[in-house]
Amino acid sequence: MATRVLAAPPPGSGLKPVVGDPGLPLVGNTLRVMRRPFEVSRERYDLFGPVSWSWLLGQRTVTVQGPEAAEAVLVNRDKAFANGPAWSFFIGPFFTRGIMLLDFEEHLHHRRIMQQAFTRQRLRAYQETMAPSIGKGLDAWVPGRGFKVYDHVKQLTLDLATDVFMGVDLDRAEADRINGAFVDAVRAGTAYVRFPVPGLRWHRGLRARKTLEEFFRTHLPAKRRDGGGDLFAALCAAETDDGHRFTDEDVVNHMIFALMAAHDTTTITLTTMAYYLARHPEWQERLRDESEALGKPVLEPADLDAMTGIDAVMKEALRLVSPVPALPRKAVKDTEVLGFHIPAGTTVVVPQLTNHRMPDVWPDPDRFDPDRFGPDRREDKAHKYAWSPFGGGAHKCIGLHFAGMQVKSIMHQWLLRYRWSVPGRYTWPLDTTSLPSPKDGLPVHLERLP
Ligand code: HEM
């Protein structure tokens, strides 16, 4: 391995240079990092320490490992790191002006308005709207062997998005058209060919973006007029105390982004929970007992905190498989992380996926052990950023309570309806080349409970 310095620190600054290895010509270390993230990150940590550089996805990228470095980048005290130029590289054309792509003053302005759509009162309304749709979606599952959890959960969360996010009555064909556009927009972010060739991902993504824009623009006037208990209506109505509101264009952009931010992340969380609950039937039974003991077919807002088993398994699933595996930033001026010199223009990545499995922070890090979040252990308290699947700082996930509510509501109803299992020696083939997901869709034996 050829070890090189990223850039010499300014003389007299007292800063250390970032050391790393460029990797292979053209591809750098991209394929190794994508295919074997856990092994490669441990190897690099041992070799270079918490801050190192490499060529990744065609960019000179500094990777910061461990909670301390994650905190420095995400809290971003001297405003050296920007989201827009970093995230745009992946999702820019499809999620134009999504809130995560805005920075500094402008971001804060939008975030303050958006927060009005995520108040406690709004969340209660979303939960109530969602409950019957979850039941309907789960009842439609056909039990048997080879039931692909990932595909079914993805469909379920997409259908829920139609109710809870859009609140628009769509027939099946129209719902499928919008869901399809949405899936194409998301997929385009991980296209290999990153310019529009008809039939390929990038092109389909651009077409999908147009479809989604037209859809939301068409329904917007009625939403503004009639309101409702959905996110679309909430964004239309959102207003800060000093009277700031979203324009029509803002609402369209934020709706498209929020759908994306909410959908794959909750799908991955539920699929990971289902995988470990299939591998650990004792935990599945423990959670089912808890849900049965509650004595209610659907969770109500006041029940969310009481579901401690589901909560621990959800946290452990988010630790083992972080749905957003890496948080990229672009340095907009010379700065430092843990005393290492980061020159302006560098892409900096916080690798959530591997940070959550650092042996220095988590005992036996690859083991599924939800009790590590129990009151007597609280291993997540090792550092404020030890467990940070929702990010941190100004861009911390605005939907984190929504996500918890949705995941718990679905899991509760699922446990009451079905038992599921995998063969004893099955381990899932986790694809980590994009957002993490099982290559085989996670086939389980799904049995309906009497
Ligand atoms: C388990 C589920 C989820 C996970 C793991 C997750 C994770 C994240 C992460 C890590 C970020 C920060 C990205 C960064 O700093 O670059 C983020 C931002 C965001 N998330 Fe989530 N998310 C989840 C669910 C949701 C849901 C359900 C919604 C909406 C209802 C949502 C809406 C957003 C929005 C709007 C942002 C951007 C916030 C900003 O830039 O100010 N997320 N999410």
TrEMBL record:
Its cofactor is heme. Gene3D superfamilies: Cytochrome P450. One of its GO terms (molecular function) is monooxygenase activity. One of its GO terms (biological process) is sterol metabolic process. Heme binds at C397. Keywords: Heme, Iron, Metal-binding, Monooxygenase, Oxidoreductase. InterPro entries: Cyt_P450, Cyt_P450_CS, Cyt_P450_E_grp-IV, Cyt_P450_sf. PROSITE patterns: CYTOCHROME_P450. Belongs to the cytochrome P450 family. This is Cytochrome P450. The lineage of its organism: Bacteria, Bacillati, Actinomycetota, Actinomycetes, Streptosporangiales.
